[in-house]
Amino acid sequence: MPNNQKILCSVGSCMFNESKDNLCKLDAIQVSAAAESDSGAPYDETLCASYKNHHKKK
Ligand code: SF4
Questions:
Q1: Which residues 6+ apart lie within 8 Å of 23 measured at CB?
Q2: Residue 31 — φ and ψ, nearest 5°?
Q3: Which of 8, 16, 20, 43 is 20 to 30 Å from the Cα of 30, by its Cα?
Q4: What separation in Å is there between the alpha carbon of 6 and the centre of ligand 1?
Q5: Higher-confidence position of 7 and 37
Q6: Which of 5, 6, 7, 30 to mutate to test the pocket of ligand 1 (most atoms within 8 A of CB)?
């Protein structure tokens, strides 16, 4: 993997997001399917499992 790879992300509610730069601050993330998903739709099959809410409510 090239050292200059970036993770572009616009999820502003995540504590790892740099919303002004549209970037994730982490060096790597885990992408996983939603629980019990078999729809084949991207929004079901490709959730960011590294997400942490700013307020840590969940
Ligand atoms: S951890 Fe996931 S949701 Fe959070 S900023 Fe990084 S890529 Fe986006």
A1: 6, 7, 8, 9, 17
A2: -110, 130
A3: 20
A4: 11
A5: 7
A6: 7
The mean pLDDT value for 29-56 works out to 90
Nearest atom within ligand 1 for CA of residue 7: 7
> For the chain, what is the domain count?
1
| Residue 35 φ then ψ, to 5° | -60, 135
Amino acid making up residue 7: I
Cα 38 to ligand 1 centroid, rounded to whole Å: 23
pTM above 0.70, yes or no: yes
At residue 1 the predicted structure's pLDDT band, cuts being 50, 70 and 90, is: low
